Amino acid sequence: MKVSEIGFGCWAIGGTSYGPTKDEDSLLALETAWNAGVNFFDTADTYGHGHSEELLARFLKGKPRDKVVLASKVGWDFYHGGSKKNFSPDYIEFACEQSLKRLGVETLDLYQLHNPKLELIQQGEVWGVLEKLKTSGKIRYIGVSIHREEEGLAVMEDGCVDTLQLVFNLIEQDHAERVFPAAKENDIGILAREPLACGLLSGKYSPEHQFLKTDHRNRWTQEKRTLDYEKIERLRAILATDRLSMVQAALEYILQFDAVSTVIPGAKTKEQVLENLKATLDPKLRIQEADHLRGMYQREEIFSKRIG
């Protein structure tokens, strides 16, 4: 698959995890991205309990299907009361059919397990149903979204997976040490998610900012937020320039890693899309700045600390 190096993460437009949204704003954001050359759109059935996929279906009308690379995920069962992890073969087949219906397409370009546990990955039984969906033409490629390094390394042992989606940004770079080289060796594409650290690197939020109860960031402890802001302030010292914004620097930095196939920042508005796209349309991060940022991450103890 040929994908744009800046993609479109569709979690926020689901409307239930990053504060309120307006569908007309979301659709304009999608159109803006498409018109600027973005062809990779990453969603999940659980984003807005299907609403993100439904918005993508509206956006896709009239678009050449073979020019759009469409990715979704499976694993959070919200169909049977509440929301819980479910990776049973029957459920995966059922959920895939539901996603295809909502999206109005016959085939998903990429279908990803949505943050499975290490034990499930190591058991390997789940690959059978994904290969079945692939053989039947329901999906083209298989991916896994992970959190931890050991999960990413385990995924690559079976040889069944085409892509790996993981958290990677200026304050979370652990995967660069072992997962990135392994992915290159195994010819597995890397999708870098949360490249702006769920918005913290946008500069819009102070350490005292109170997120809405419906915003997933509301669960962050004050201790975690204080630590993350301390890290960001150290990064700002290197990027104390009007030449480029923190958003642009954060996205360009990730693209310096040749293991990364695409970066998928979220966006709820046209303006956010245009800001994200500066990283690829008008790059300004200097090599020495990127080297300094990487060196700081590797040297300073604060960046090895994790809370939540």
Walk me through the topology.
Blueprint: E1 8-9, H1 23-35, E2 40-42, H2 51-60, E3 69-74, E4 76-77, E5 84-85, H3 89-103, E6 108-114, H4 118-123, H5 127-135, E7 139-145, H6 149-155, E8 163-167, H7 175-185, E9 189-193, H8 222-238, H9 246-255, E10 260-263, H10 270-281, H11 287-299
Parallel strand pairs: 1-2, 2-3, 3-6, 6-7, 7-8, 8-9, 9-10
Antiparallel strand pairs: 4-5
Description of the structure:
- There is one protein chain.
- β8, α7 (175-185) and β9 (189-193) form a beta-alpha-beta unit.
- The chain has a single domain (8-205, 246-282), classed as NADP-dependent oxidoreductase domain (TIM Barrel), CATH 3.20.20.100.
- The chain has helices spanning 23-35, 51-60, 89-103, 118-123, 127-135, 149-155, 175-185, 222-238, 246-255, 270-281, 287-299; strands at residues 8-9, 40-42, 69-74, 76-77, 84-85, 108-114, 139-145, 163-167, 189-193, 260-263.
- An 8-stranded parallel β-sheet has the order 1-2-3-6-7-8-9-10, covered by helices on one side. Strands 4-5 form a two-stranded antiparallel ribbon.
- It starts with 7 loop residues before the first strand and ends in a 9-residue tail after the last helix.
- It has 11 helices and 10 strands.
- The longest helix is centred in the last third of the chain and has 17 residues, at 222-238.
- It has 308 residues and is α/β, with parallel strands linked by helices.
